[in-house]
UniProtKB/TrEMBL annotation:
Keywords: Cadmium, DNA-binding, Phosphoprotein, Transcription, Transcription regulation, Two-component regulatory system. GO terms for biological process: regulation of DNA-templated transcription. The keyword Transcription applies. This is Response regulator for cobalt/zinc/cadmium resistance transcription regulator protein. NCBIfam families: cztR_silR_copR.
Length: 235
């Protein structure tokens, strides 16, 4: 899930980016209002976390302009705690409003709630062959057997299972999962794929994660079924 973070305070921005990344999200962090509006308009985000007081353009104006063309869920995260500020943010079209200082666990809960109900939210379950990936509960099973993954392994599998049969290069994977430019001297992608393959394929006759030499990796059953996406009915 791709999130845009618009926060000009370096310590807060770095803290949020690290926390959300460790929670399995892909985060783009920008520090000016102009960059925030540009990214929000031109890239596909599932959620925007937006400060109010920003250089170049404030959060109110960003949201006002964004709502002309986009319905991406927006969470205001700001030190402005007056009732009038909260009302203004919601009236402009914000989906939630959280005041600094905040507990990260509360922020994460609000992020996941918005992703569940937002107009561009992810599907809840993705099934491919005998693998079931629960996006919101962050659980994976294969043939009914629970598979425990780290946050990065989950993000890697999520990327692969959404694009079955498509060969994904190491630079693509590094950019989406680690938010980094791929350096041919690093083996971070290969190590992560090897660990995921060990957990996902070992002990199963049918192998899903394949290496395409000189190109990258592909997730597929060579004679298998199509991927199915399932949206659960939640109370």
């Amino acid at each position: 899930m791709h999130i845009l973070l618009v926060e000009d305070e370096p310590k807060s921005g770095d803290y949020l980016r690290r926390g959300l990344t460790e929670s399995g999200f892909v985060v783009d962090w920008v520090q000016t209002g102009v960059d925030g509006l540009h990214n929000a308009r031109t890239l596909d985000y599932k959620l925007i976390i937006l400060d109010v007081m920003l250089p170049g353009m404030n959060g109110w104006d960003i949201l006002r302009e964004l709502r002309r063309t986009h319905d991406t869920p927006v969470l205001f995260l700001t030190a402005r705690d007056e009732v009038e500020d909260r009302v203004k943010g919601l009236e402009l079209g914000a989906d939630d409003y959280l005041v600094k200082p905040f507990a990260y666990t509360e922020l994460l809960a609000r992020v996941r709630t918005l992703l569940r109900r937002g107009p561009s939210r992810e599907v809840d379950l993705i099934e491919y062959d005998d693998v079931v990936l629960d996006v919101l509960r962050r659980k994976v099973t294969r043939a009914g057997q629970r598979i425990d993954l780290t946050a990065k392994e989950f993000a890697l599998l999520h990327m692969l299972i959404r694009r079955p049969g498509e060969v994904l290069s190491r630079p693509q994977i590094a950019s989406q999962v680690w938010d980094m430019n791929f350096d041919s001297d690093t083996n971070v992608v290969d190590v992560a794929v090897r660990r995921l393959r060990a957990k996902l394929d070992e002990g199963f006759e049918k192998k899903l994660l394949h290496t395409v030499w000189g190109m990258g990796y592909v997730f597929e059953v060579r004679e298998g079924r199509e991927v199915r996406e399932v949206r659960e009915e939640r109370p």
